[in-house]
Amino acid sequence: MTSKPSRTCEQLIRDAVARIGGASPRLDAELLLSHVTGLSRTRFRAWPEQPVPADQVEAFERLVAGRVAGQPVAYLLGHQEFWSLPLKVSPATLIPRPDTECLVEVALTLPLAEQARVLDLGTGTGAIALALASERPGWRVGACDRIAEAVALARCNAEALGLPLQVWQSRWFDGLPPARFDLIVSNPPYIKEGDRHLGEGDVRFEPPSALVSGPDGLNDLREIVQRAPDWLVPGGWLLVEHGYDQGAPVRALFQARGFARVESRQDYGARERLTLG
Ligand code: GLN
To answer: For 83-276, CATH number?
Structure first.
């Protein structure tokens, strides 16, 4: 009796690519195979004929089936890189986006003291807060999230990375201990209810509470901009991410609340995606 011939890395990747489709099927297939085999993606290129043991083939096929059904690669792997930090993710939180690294970059350019107090509102995985803590060891970084599972995840990521992060469970400012911050950052939900984008790709599997904010997408930004000055030191900064078409209305919110030096900044796709004041 002959046993089933084992499949090679390249065969598995090719078969998966044909089924996965979408924008980056090869990358997706390589990430999933790397996850089950423990081999690096470069290894697949260097040794495409490497056989894969049957139990790993089975595990890989389960992941591919999930991807074919539209599940985000980050949720299938349980982690996602942000600012070169490996972060655990779960379907309770938004998957950190490369565009949000722009927010981190802008925050790092602000003229802040070495021991600045910083707050990340709606931290999810802790991505923004942990990126800032990793770059500025002197900053005292805190973060909050309304969802208990996100709070636990952010704490777990901080611990795994060995970065100090205080995390509170709080809906925006509602449950925070009294404090004043030099910088408040946030990537709140900002998509309009019923937006076509919500029916496409990874966002279908992400929590709507992290994405959608009222008929114009600005409900949460309105609240944050309105309340932030009560939590900032004089001269403190508020820096938020928003939709690429929300620059003008968000600047207007900042100005109406009395912020000075209000400016929008572009993301890596040259679209207005951040506003600060
Ligand atoms: N930028 C994300 C998207 O368009 C949305 C993130 C958010 O609402 N904060 O998928």
So the answer is: 3.40.50.150
